[in-house]
Amino acid sequence: MSKDILYIANKKLKSRLIVGTGKYKNFSETAKAVQASGADMVTVAVRRVNITNKKKPILTDYLSPKKIIFLPNTAGCFSSEEALRTLRLAREMGGWKLVKLEVLGDKKTLFPNMIETIKSTKVLVKEGFKVMVYCTDDPLLARKLEDVGASAIMPLASPIGSGLGIQNKTNISIIIKQSKVPVIVDAGIGTASDATIAMELGCDGVLINSAIANSKKPILMARAFKDAVISGRNSFIAGRMKKNFFASPSSPEEGLI
Amino acid sequence: MAKIQLNGKKISIKSNFSIYELLKKYKLNNKKIAIEYNGVIIPKAKFKNKFLKNNDRLEIVHFIGGG
Description:
The structure holds two protein chains of two kinds. Chain A is α/β, with parallel strands linked by helices.
């Protein structure tokens, strides 16, 4: 098979699975799960350093941005100002320009505030950031994000951390068909088969955190997702058979005794 | 002595203490952090000659696990 490589803002990704690094039992488990997932890119959050406990382990002791692409995110930000502040600090930390923007609008659903999200994307693009944008599964808003310069569109499958899987396959399909930038399904994937479904729809990738971290065996689940994404992608490229209303025998009728 | 606010906590430091010295005191690797000084991001190159004074607000952030 010819090489099927995903490019996001000119960054080459061998794996179409991006994983989050939150919610794990400890950093050792995080690192092992990331490795088992085969992901080239992980999302990370920006928070205050712990000044009271200098000996507490930190994420970068376990995962190196030299070996894996860090994608700083704005998780937990409810306004454009907070999100911009967070990403400017992330850039200052070590030159990160490729970032994930999420501006939340509601504490209960964690649905994105699309008005603030579009506004923030514009500002970030102007400042030279390459922005992957968490968004609703509304095709018109997804197109708007692409128009203002998003590097990837990241529609939710269902609410963050809900594990409900893809709720609106039609909308996700429309977004895939209309977008020229990569479409990564982000949020709400519950289990490996959900990721396969996303990939079979033609998504360029999926972002998973809770479904791996909150499973009973995260490292095994990370491997399951790796396989699920590869399967879904291959299935999409291979092209599924046509659906028929009636049966069609698999064995030839000629020579029947 | 100067009283500053570091990551939301009030702390006391010697006068003429630079950001660079503060990082050393807390054993923080400047490659892994970013700093906001009174609401403005300070480039790493300026850590050595940025001296802290009374009522300064400092935010030191780094990457943690997140989705």
